[in-house]
Amino acid sequence: MAESKGKRASRVNRVEAIVAHRVAGSNWSYVATNADYANICSLSASKISRLKSSSRAKASVSRAIVCFSRLTDLTEELVSSLKDSKITKHVLFVSGLPVEATISRLKALKIRSLDRLHLADKENRESEAMLIQRFFVGMKDPVGIPTITDAWIEGDELVLLSASFQRLKIPRSKLDRFLGTNSDKWLQFEIDEEGSFLYWPHADAHFGWKQLEQLVDPTKSIQDQKKTDQFKRLYGHAIRAVRESAGLKQIEIDGLTDRQLRRIEHGEQMASPKALESLAKAHGLEISDYMNRLAAMTRAG
After folding, report:
1. Phi-psi bin for 273: left (phi > 0), alpha (psi -120 to 50), beta?
2. Per the domain annotation, does 191 fall within a domain?
3. What CATH number should be reported for the domain holding residue 31?
4. 25: left (phi over 0), alpha (psi -120 to 50) or beta
5. Which residue, among 116, 108, 72, has the nearest Cα to 90 in the 3D structure?
6. Backbone phi, psi, residue 69, to 5°
7. Is the pTM higher than 0.90?
8. How far apart (Å, rounded) are the C-alpha atoms in residues 195 and 135?
9. Cα 271 to Cα 280: distance, rounded to the nearest angstrom
10. C-alpha count within 13 angstroms, C-beta hemisphere, residue 284
11. What CATH number is attached to the domain comprising 156?
């Protein structure tokens, strides 16, 4: 009997030895709760080690510890150990277990925020490995342009996940003109192995994070450009040219004072998303149509 208890105690001690592995060239660490994921993480870390991280990227994830596990790994003893390990984010693969099992284990982990958790339901081990690899690529520079760690369909929305667990939702209606309206084809996309884009083979269509973001919010297209004095002047001239071609005076733009608009048109400040919306409304245009006119005028200028 004593021998049995000794064996059980030894097994528990091994489970509780949670080891966080530092990723070379960065300041974040990972925990893998099974041998498969430990091997995938090690290979992924090695693959990206030659890529250079920005100092901002290192600072942003300096205390991050990310755990990769299968739902079936989460025994009572392991859950107890994970709660004491200062895990900041958890990628949990739930394939093959009922909803009830997921709920009970999440309650035990006491994870209450989507900013800390991603539940992934993948069809095979290869798909799980690819997700982990994309996560490592994304964590190389999480403060830069996001890459796509995972993507899925929720009703009539496409949902993207970045390595920082940022989520972007794109209504299907924004993609219909590129992909068509066939419901089955809408579901059949592939994720690039480094998360650079999604690909729909039937339409030969590629979309990266920023392209999809700009479909949802067209004003993003200028927010992400380098705001040099030259660009501000060029964009301001385009705003003025479109306004004058519509026969509008500076004082006729609701939501902007003539002084604010004058500064924008002279290139002294960038037009904010709110200012662009006010301008589009004053011109009787949808924001996307107004942005297209500005883009055409900017190219012509």
Report:
1. alpha
2. yes
3. 3.40.50
4. left
5. 116
6. -155, 160
7. no
8. 8
9. 12
10. 3
11. 3.30.2020.40
